[in-house]
Write a structure and sequence with these properties.
The termini are far apart. The protein is α/β, with parallel strands linked by helices. It contains 16 helices and 5 strands.
């Protein structure tokens, strides 16, 4: 069992940085990295999914490099963990030995949408904090009768992916990332008079984010598009207690349940929630879909949490749900 306490953090940190180099810069950041890395290692080990740990460490390596740390900092942290667990837990040590990520590069975002010019303009206006022009870019697309799904998938969603990458590269602040999210959420609300005017003829759908994370934009977009497509949707947002999700499922009896997460440390909670949903006496026997970055990186992960299927994006979800309409 992987322990969590200050002694463990300090012991690993002493292996990672034995000479206490770069004390002012390294200590605060390094102790935080050790904590986060242990959290990812714990969930990866418990689910027997090396990919969770490997993808996190490749992400961390690039982040540390962008923050000015040595290029091999993540590999050094991995080696430090191996040294620590070699004498503490043979099973965890063996897991770490098999979870090598040396040479694995973190995939950067690459735009592949239909409206590159509009995407570039919207992104530029967001980064320059020009809210009126950002809104006008999207409303001009709406006035041209460009489908909402195209606006979402070719401009709004890729912009948020790019914003996340820019934060990862230490080129923008967390505050700017939050600003981009707020503006995008506001623009999405401008489509609601259109989205919620359609007839519901395809059944009920419940969607939410699992765990206490706040990455809800992607699943909110999915809920919006399904509403437009004729589904009676109930979007519960983020940071909702599992008991409340179960209560809504029992009350609404949906045909489809869409659960999303970005941070792998919530996978155990997701697995438990899915198990509890299946125990409910619901006449519709709902189909449970999962989505989010962990499921994009590992196409078999949905089976580990006992979901029925996973979706890569909005269009993939629409395609897979067709068989249940």
């Amino acid at each position: 069992m992987i322990e969590f306490n200050e002694t463990v953090y300090r012991d690993i940190l002493n292996i990672y940085n034995p000479e206490n180099k770069h004390k002012d810069k390294l200590n605060k950041k390094s102790i935080q990295d050790v904590k986060y890395t242990l959290e990812f290692l714990k969930i990866a080990y418990e689910l027997n999914k090396e990919s969770i740990y490997i993808n996190y460490m490749s992400w961390l390596g690039l982040l540390l490099e962008n923050l000015g740390f040595p290029k091999n900092s993540a590999e050094h942290l991995h080696e430090s963990l191996s040294i620590y667990f070699k004498t503490k837990d043979e099973d965890v040590y063996s897991f770490l030995k098999n979870a090598s990520f040396k040479g694995i590069k973190y995939n950067r975002f690459k735009y592949e949408g239909k409206y590159k010019e509009e995407y570039k303009n919207y992104l530029s206006h967001i980064l320059n904090r020009n809210k009126p022009k950002a809104i006008k870019t999207i409303m001009d697309m709406k006035d041209q009768d460009i489908p909402i799904i195209d606006i979402y998938t070719s401009v709004l969603q890729p912009t948020m992916y790019k914003v996340g990458q820019l934060w990862h590269e230490n080129k923008i602040s967390v505050a700017m990332e939050h600003y981009a999210t707020v503006i995008t959420q506001y623009i999405m609300s401008l489509f609601y008079s259109t989205l919620f005017s359609n007839t519901h003829n395809k059944g009920k759908l419940i969607s939410c984010v699992v765990g206490n994370e706040l990455h809800e934009l992607g699943i909110r977009m999915i809920s919006d598009i399904f509403e437009q497509d004729g589904w009676d949707t109930t979007f519960l947002g983020s940071n909702i207690p599992p008991a409340e999700v179960l209560r809504m499922v029992k009350s609404i009896e949906p045909r489809i349940i869409a659960l999303s997460l970005t941070m792998p440390e919530h996978l155990s909670e997701l697995k438990t929630l899915i198990s509890d949903i299946r125990k409910l006496e619901v006449t519709t026997n709902p189909i449970i879909f999962v989505g989010g970055r962990p499921f994009i990186l590992d196409e078999t992960l949905y089976e580990t949490v006992n979901a029925d299927d996973y979706a890569l994006d909005i269009e993939d979800f629409l395609k897979k749900v067709k068989q249940f309409e």
